[in-house]
Amino acid sequence: IVDTFDGESSLMRMSVSKYDVILCDYNLGAGKDGQQVLEEARHYNYLSYMTIFMMVTAENSTDMVMGAVECMPDDYLMKPFTKQVLEKKILAVLEKKIALREITQTIELMDYEKALRLCDEEIGKNPKHVREVLRIKGDILARIGDLPRTEAFYQDIAAKGKLPWAMFGLGKCQYLQGRLEDAKDTFSQLIKTNDKVMAAYDWLAKTLDAMGTPQEAQSVLMKAVEISPRMLERQRELGAIAHKNNDLKTAVKSFKSAIKYGRNSVYKAPSDYTTLAKVLLNTDSPQESLHVLGEAHQEFPRDTGATVQI
Asked: Cβ atoms within 10 A of the Cβ of 241, count?
C-alpha cells in the first residue's frame, strides 16, 4: 500500500486483501492518521502475523513521534529514507517474525506451557532474539495468571539489567497483588530510568488513585499527556480523574482532546461527548453543553446506545 491513499481507502483494501508489507504514512491528510489506521486494522484483524506494518513519517515533533511509537508498528521510517534502509528494516522484521512464528501460533492456541518451552528452546539456540523472547515469556506467564511465578521472573530479569519491559511487568504484578507501595516505587523508578515508557505513567497514575491520592495521579497523567497527547484512553483517564478532583478546566480540556483524537478512531465513543457535556454543565456553560450533545447526535445518529446517553 503506498502512502498516497487516505486512511479509509487503505483500510478498505486491507479488508479485502492480505498484504505482506504495508508502508503507511503517519500524516494522511484529512481523516484517519496512520496511528488510527493501524489501530483499526488490528481491531478488525486485517493484519496477519506475518504482515509487516511500517509507519512512515516526515514529522519530528515529540507528539507525532511518540504517537507513532506508542501504537507499536513493526518498525517506523523517517523521511527521507533510502531503498537500502527500507530493505534492511524489512528483512530484519521478517527474520524475527519467522524465528518467533511457532511461539506466537502456540500462544494463539492458548497452549501456554508449550509456548514457555518453545521460548526456552529459542533462547538456547538463537541468542539474537533473547530479549524479545524473554519479553514474550513474561507475557505468557502473565496470561497464565500465576502472579508469584510471574513476579519472580520479572524480578530476575530486572535485577540483571533493569530492562524497561521487565520493570513494567514487575510493577503490574505488584499492583495486581495489592502491593501498591511496591508498585508505586517500581513505576516511579522506571520513569526515572526511561521517561518515554508511557504505559508506566498510566499505571503509576492508576496505582496512586488506588492509594487514595488522586491529585498525585492527575499530576502524573498531565505529565504523560505533555509527552504523548494522542492516546485516546489517556485523555479519557485524565479527564475522569480531573473531574474527580474538581479540576473542571483540565477535565474540559482533556475530554475535548479525547473527542479530537477520537473523531476518526475506531475507539471513539458517545461517552466522550456526554461526559464532556456534564462537565460543561458544572462550569455553568449550558449552551456549550447542548452544542456538544448536538455533535454527539451527529457523530452517532444510528447508535441507540448513544441516543440513550444523550
From this structure: 25
In 3-state terms, what secondary structure has residue 62? helix
The H or E element containing residue 299 is helix 286-299
Q: How far apart are CA 290 and CA 280, in angstroms?
A: 9
Cis peptide upstream of residue 270 (ω within 30 degrees of 0): no
Q: How far, in Å, CA of 166 to CA of 157, rounded?
A: 6
Residues 183-200, mean pLDDT to the nearest whole number: 96
Specify which residues 76 forms β-bridges with.
55
Q: How far apart are CA 20 and CA 9, in angstroms?
A: 18
Q: Enumerate residues 6+ apart whose C-beta is below 8 A from 110.
A: none
pLDDT digits (tens, 9 = 90+) for 20-42: 999 999 888 889 999 999 999 99
pTM above 0.85, yes or no: yes
Distance CA 200, CA 182 (A): 14
pLDDT tens digit sequence for 88-116: 999 999 999 999 999 999 999 999 999 99
